[in-house]
Amino acid sequence: MSELGSVLRRVRAFAGQLTLLAVLAALAAFLVSGPVRLANGRTDDGLRGDIAKLPAASRDLTYSGIRQGGEPSRAEGSGRLEPIHRGLPEPLPGMVAGSWYIAETELSSIRPAGVEPGECPNLVRVRWQTGSNGTVTMVDGRGPKSGRTPELVIGRDAAAALGIKVGDRVSLGSEAGRVEAAVVGIFTPVNPADPIWSDQELAPGACPDPREGQRSEAVLLTDQPGVIRIGAALANLGDRWRYRLDEKRITADQVKVLTKAVATARRVPPELTALQSSLDTTLGQFDEQVGAVRALLAVVQAGILATAAGLILLAARLMADRRRAEFALVRARGGAVRTVAGRTVRETLTVVPIAVAAGWLAGLLLPGRAAPEEPLLVLAVALVAVLAAPLFAALGARHPAFSGHRPDAASLRPSPRRLTAEAFLVLLAGGGIYLLRRRGLDAGAGVDPYLIAAPVLLALAASVVALRLVPFPLRWAGNLTARARGAIAFLGLSGAGRAPLHSGPLAVLVVAIATGLFTGTVTSTVGAARDHAAELAVPADATVSGYRFGPDVADRIAALPHVTKATSMLLYQGATVRGDTTPLLTQTQAMVVDAATAGLDLPDVLVGAKPGGAAVPVIVSPRLAAQLGGGGGRVEVQGRDYAFTVARVQATVPGLSTEARDFMVLPRQAMPIPDFQPILPNRILVAGSGFDPERVRQAADDSQRALLAGLTGKQQKDGALAVPAVVTTRTAYRATLEQRGVDGALSFTFAAGMIAAAALSLTAVALAVLTGAPARGRTLSRLRTMGLSPRQGRRLLIFEILPLIGVAVLAGGLAGFVLPALIGPALGLSGFTSGVTAGITLDPWFAGGVLVVAAFAVLAALVVENIANRRLRLGTVLRLGEEQS
What membrane topology was assigned to this protein in its record (predicted)? Predict the structure, then answer.
């Protein structure tokens, strides 16, 4: 009991130092758990959102029955629904939220009974499905009770689109035959969001001849006898077993397992079935994105945790330095080094584990999913926080001293052992970056250890180099200030030149700033690349796409309010290319645009191209250029050949997707286009501000209808276009680049990294001030006997702390800025930028933010110094009496 009381008395006596250590340990434990949980939660939400957006045919696991001998189904497969479910590869069975057996015909024509079929009839599927009882509300008529004549029910929207009402008799036809059925009911879903309806949506379909307009495709429901009769007549009835996976049960850490399970289900399906689903493809693509986000998060987390660990070590060292005399007294009374370490361990065990548990609990309260390594990291934080102070105390007790030893007065010449260790650290950092660039990420390692270690080592190496270089300019500056009037600058720079005093805080500060600048640089780089991707995909304020517009479409749109210019353009997918010097006959994507007036970023050779030449100059993609062998040829565009010569080879062109690999850009103003065979555009580039996208779309569709009316001699109704116009603004397209599943986690990683780095940087500066506070306090007490004012004392601190902050900003800023360029290929940043590669950029706002943090660091240093001076009572240190300021 007496031992416990002694420990508690020491804890109360040194409560300030232990509280600082405990707070930093709690903060580190929180950083281990809380931010990672939030990031994982956002990743999971993004995955679920991506899966929820998929159409039913892609997200569901659907087994289709294989017909034996080409015979249609007998609609007797409902008994296999549960056995197939149980036989799914793990962990799929536990993720199924709903399952249905479906007997359904293929798309068949539908028309009123007794009416001859038209050229473009509507198409329907007739379905009987288990689990539909209680999911519909009949708004007219009744449910099907098929006898000799099959009976059908239809959704209200489909009935309106097909022009069907209760009591109608319809004729369904396929290549094998026709059958008549009666429509006996019209229904609405009880819950339209129910997954059972997700594959029964009314859909528009194109007629075989686009000039005939558009038709509808719908699903009609019947009972089991009805679907058997209809299937026998049409000879195209098939079986399907559909399983809906609940995306709420799926987390990002299950992606690899789920991908493998779906692939296994496809490779080894149940007997006489084949799996139809692209869920494994979606999961695989998401896993690649998650891997890149996880890599970024690992780099940021490693930097933040390394900074937090460094702060804990600084606090532990501060605690040991402040108790140097106490430990020397223990040694003088015969205590061993382990005695000093043991009493310090008992003190830290009283406070630190509780603080670590509190920090971990705070992280557990945040929503999200824990990382598998979270308990081990929390344990590591607890061990470092508990053992750091006893270790420093033991090291100090090996050479006890009562003289108030000043660590800042150490020799500026480092020992050979230390120089060797620092050189090894620099070589280790350089080797880690080189190996990471050479071999890339280890995809099988989860979070690549090289990726974690290399950035932190680079920041530490930068701090070591700065530590060895900074005394020379400081010595030069000190010599200059020694000749100037006043001693404040000289004394401050002399204190700053004592490198051993600031080696720990400098390393911690450099790591924090490097982490923050790395995060800011990646943010700017990704943002700039996405801006470039948006400029390539939408090279004007908006683009209008459609099937084919009339020659006057640009004039129609240019006449709208707030539209300053409209330029027509053709993207022709099936252009046939023949080379002059090679036996090349291939198809490519041709882009035809008036390069002189479009305002696109195209080479001068295209912008200045004039008509009358034997061949028009063109831009071609690198792959097409390699096939052409550098020569020219002829290209077919909308049924007419044009001679061309290759003027430029480019990998990307404004107006074409970054995924385009084979393309050719032709200057329309230089092409010999006859008046009787004009090139009809399918794209419009719109320039302007504040225009109404809906009016632009209407004008474009009016042009399409006018063109079709001229070709067919029939007026086209609204909504009858096979490919209605779509208006895409650059702003909207740019926004879509930030709406993928992983972008929530990516944005959180960026924000959390910069905020944490800024906060930890300020803490590092505060600890640097506290470390030197006693020695600086004795110096100030002596100087005040010579007339030093409190204001001059604050200036002295600024001169001493500014070099530390400045060097840290330069070294950490440089390391953080070059780090994305050094390890960018391993991070896979192009996965966030639609494949566009952009140079490393840094937004001026982020650079300004570093300066703001530096200014706040100076203010924090002044505040901490003022608090420390009040506790030290500088006015009475030399028994000079209380100084009134």
Answer: Multi-pass membrane protein
Confidence of residue 482 (pLDDT cuts 50, 70, 90): low
| Token couple for 263 | 């692939």
Q: Is the Cβ–Cβ distance between 760 and 69 less than 8 Å?
A: no
The structure tokens listed for 673 are 């286009």
Instruction: With beta carbons less than 8 A apart as the criterion, state whether 680 and 706 touch.
Output: no
DSSP state of 722: S
Q: In what helix (H) or strand (E) does residue 684 lie, and over which residues does it extend?
A: strand 683-688
Residues in the chain: 885
H/E run at residue 463: helix 449-469
For the chain, first and last CA: distance in Å?
Answer: 47
DSSP, collapsed to helix, strand or coil, labels residue 608 as coil
Q: How many helices (H) and strands (E) does the chain have?
A: 24, 21
- In sequence order, the 6+-apart residues with CB closer than 8 A to the CB of 675 are none
CB count within 10 Å of CB 424 equals 10
Q: Would you say 746 and 39 are in contact if contact means Cβ atoms under 8 Å apart?
A: no
Q: Which pLDDT tens digit goes with each residue over 728-773?
A: 999 999 888 887 777 878 888 888 888 888 888 888 888 777 776 6
pLDDT, tens only, 164-214: 999 999 999 888 889 999 999 999 999 988 999 988 888 877 777 666 667
* pLDDT-above-70 percentage for the chain: 85
* Cα separation, 559 vs 563, whole angstroms: 7
253-267: string of b/e by CB count within 10 Å (b at 16+)?
A: bbbeebbebbbbbbe
* pLDDT confidence of residue 400: 63
Alpha helices (runs of H) in 440-448, residue ranges in sequence order: none
Is 596:742 a contact under the CB 8 Å cutoff?
no
Give the Cα separation of 195 and 135 in Å (integer): 11
Q: Give residue 431's identity as a one-letter amino acid code.
A: G
Helix ranges, 323-336 (H):
324-332
